[in-house]
Amino acid sequence: MEILSFLLYAGGRKDPPELLIAAFIGLALGLWMLRRSERAAMKGQQEIETRADKNEITEDEAASLVINHRFRQATQKLMKTLCIFLLTIGATTPFLAGFPLHEYWHPWGECALLGSFAVFIIMVLSLGSWMSEWFARHEARQAMR
Fold first, then answer.
1. What is the pLDDT of residues 39-59, one digit of tens each?
2. HEC profile for the chain?
3. Model confidence, pTM
């Protein structure tokens, strides 16, 4: 709780609701995007399982397709979050000292910085998911040989 109060009242300001709003909006958008891509991955897996149940493809082919599909989804999710992170960093840059919008650091620069921090956390989680899928794909390919 002390960390939250430090973040809220950094710089001696006593009216930081816009910072919380920016953080919650950044986290909500990132989580919504991640959840949406997971639903798409589950839909693709169900389609592959349906094809395997109808004997259109063998079980080995189905397993390979599912693994590749999950890896592709994780890669797309990582690329999306990386692009959004770079965009938020780019949006924060004009508010830094020495740039023309520095006089508007309070509250807009702080909001942009907090939003990019929220997206950074989501990007790190996406990177962990991608690494997990990469290792699973590597192990599955080793097992199939």
1. 776 777 777 778 777 878 777
2. CHHHHHHHCHHHCCCCHHHHHHHHHHHHHHHHHHHHHHHHHHHHHHHHHHHHHCCCCCHHHHHHHHHHHHHHHHHHHHHHHHHHHHHHHHHHHHHCCCCCCHHHHHHHHHHHHHHHHHHHHHHHHHHHHHHHHHHHHHHHHHHHC
3. 0.66
